[in-house]
Structure formats: structure tokens, C-alpha cells
Amino acid sequence: MKNNVLAVVLAGGKGERLEPLTRDRAKPAVPFGGEYRIVDFTLSNCFNSGVRQILLLTQYKSLSLDRHVATGWARFFHRELREFVDVAPPQQRLAESWYQGTADAVYQNIYSIEKESPELVLVLAGDHVYKMDYRDIIEFHRAKNADLTISAIPVPLDEARGRLGVLEADADGRVVDFEEKPLAPRPLPDDPTSCFASMGVYVFNAKFLYEALCRDATKLGSRRDFGRDVVPRAVEKDRVFAFPFVSTGPDGKKRGAYWRDVGTLDAYFAANMDLVAVEPELNLYDENWTIYSLRPNSPPAKFVLPEGESRGCALDSLVCSGAIVSGGTARRSIVGLGARIERDALVEDSLLFAQTVVERGARLRRVIVDKGAVVPAGWRVGFDAELDRSRGFFVTESGITVIPKFVG
Fold this sequence. Notes:
Elements: E1 5-11, E2 31-32, E3 36-37, H1 39-48, E4 53-58, H2 63-72, E5 84-88, H3 102-107, H4 110-115, E6 120-125, E7 128-130, H5 134-143, E8 148-156, H6 157-160, E9 165-169, E10 175-180, E11 194-205, H7 206-217, H8 226-237, E12 240-244, E13 246-248, E14 254-256, E15 259-261, H9 265-274, E16 302-304, E17 313-315, E18 318-319, E19 324-326, E20 329-331, E21 334-335, E22 340-341, E23 346-348, E24 351-352, E25 357-358, E26 363-365, E27 367-369, E28 374-375, E29 380-381, H10 385-390, E30 394-395, E31 401-403
Parallel strand pairs: 1-4, 1-6, 4-5, 8-12, 16-19, 17-20, 18-21, 19-22, 20-23, 21-24, 22-25, 23-26, 24-27, 25-28, 26-29, 27-31
Antiparallel strand pairs: 2-3, 6-11, 7-15, 8-11, 9-10, 13-14, 30-31
């Protein structure tokens, strides 16, 4: 589909609130759902929407992300058809510095964007989990003759407070107020428990974007950020509209759409746990909207009944290829690529990343085990926060324990 749209995916943030999962990798490269990386959702949305010109802006700890895109995504695009997904670290064409903010990241890549002569520029976050047909917001943007369109969704006040941009729109959808990460979000008129929050999905007219970024670059005191600087100024005098994001269910009816900002450990854990529900809100089995990723050559998952031992089983869980459940049990958990659960081990409400091992008799509850970590035989993790911390594990305010990479 030739729609004269170029997507710019922002994938360069430090991801400090996802430590220790981002200790050695960029936030968009953090595994999700066992077989994916977070960035796969944004890239799949682009591919499925026919947006086949993508500039992925990286910065911090980008090696694993670069490799993932190069090996897992480049094969879907054909350069001779002007299709591409290009990974772009800071080019320092306009300044000898790293990206100072989201707007500065795009500003420093204006040269690369202009080379493709797009009519519209779709600016996206690479660290959100959702499925969205961008053709809908592009059509909305054109119909409104907008300079900028922001995709928005109702979000509970507690989830938005201090974390998300919040906007207010009139009856025609025109944005009349925008505030980035307010501590007291303005509630919706018909729902005092929720607010209208930005999803970090922007459609810009290309010329308008260039002018707005150049103005921002010369403004003293600007933080070079879309949410804090560029968008509020555009709301004051330009045509900025809010696109209400909804999805169509299997019954053909419109409903509130699934979208998650997984920027904190608790939010990340909760979004993964959404997947093990009997009828998850985020459907990974939708053949009409495939979530693509790098697929390693792994053997099938295996469940073993050792002689004289209890059988290996998984209940309400996702078990990825190459995993072996050998006399242990997984309940409401995600068992990653090549992970192993040994005899009499119990994994409940937990996430096991690739090549992790839960040794015989160990017990895990509400735990994230990073890649390659080994949980020693007989250990109990997730039951005593102080004991977990004494072992060097991180424990969140809600009680999620994180075991870093290669521990054990």
C-alpha cells in the first residue's frame, strides 16, 4: 500500500523504571509474551497497516535491539520497492550531542525524513503494547484537515497520574488542552474516574512537523520533548485533533481498545499476565493481525513424566518452543524459549525468560526471571520480600520479584 506515510519509531529511552530488565538492553528490546520483544507490536502495526517506510531511532544499549530488527524484521521489507526499516542511532548532523528529548530525536533526523518526501509522518513509541490499524487515524487526520492528530484512549486516573499526557477535546474532536504527565489529571465529563490520555501515536503533516521542530530547536528553555513542548504549543494555535482509539471485536461491535504503557515493572508484569487469561484482551492468535517477530529454530515444547515422579504440566500458561517442563508445574505463567522447569518445581503467576532454569523443588510466585538465570533447587522466591532483597533481587512496591540475568 502506497500511502506516502513514513513512520518514525522512538526507541532510544533509557528505560530506568524497568531496571533491572533494561540493565543490558533497550526498553523496546525487553521480551514480552514469551516469544516477542516489546517493539514487535509497534512494528507489526506498521507492517499490517501498510506503512512500510520506518525509521527506528535508537540511543541507549541498542545492540540487542539492532540485532533483533536486522535478523527478525529486515526480511519483511523490500528496498527496491522503497520499503525499509532502518535503525538510526544519533547521527549528530545538527549537533554534537545525543538526543535531548523525543522532539530532538526527530529533529536530528529531519535530513533522513526529508529524503523520502513523505506527505505525513507517523511518530510512534517503541515501548507500548497494542494492536492498531494506523490507516484509521491517517484517514481521520486527512478528513479533519489537521496539522497534528493524537490518538487517545480513556485511562483510569491512577494509571495516568504522573505517567501519561492528558488532553481535552471539543465535540468536533479538536484538542483544546494538553498537559504532559499531570499529577492531577482532568477527568472525563461523563466518567470522573478516567481521563483522555495520549497513546504516544502522532500523525503530523510533514511540512508542519519540520516547522514545529525547527521552532522548538531555537526556543530557549525547551526540553525538546513532544509532550512537554511541541504538542502544547501546537494546541494553542494550530489544528490539533484527538483520534478516539477503539477496536472492533469478533462480533463486529466497537469497544474500548487494548493499549498498555509497559514503562514500569508492575505495568509490564500486569500486561504479560493479561495474556494468560482464558479470554485475553490482547489476542495473539488473530490471523488477520499477526504479531511478527524473530523466530529462532527451536524444537517443540516438551512435557515430561519422569518415572516415579509427578508429571510435568502447565495450567492457564503460555509455553514457548524449546521449553521443557520435566515433572514440574507452571500455573498462570509464561514459560519462555528454551526455559526449563525441573521435578517438583512450582512456578505460579510468573514470567520465565529464555533459557532460564527452575531447579528441582524450587517455588516461584509473582516472579520475573531474566534470560539465562538459574533458580537453585529448593529455593522459595516471591514469598519473603526481605529474603529476596538479601539475595540481590529487586522487589517492586506491589511485591513483584525480579531475578536479573545469569543469576544462580
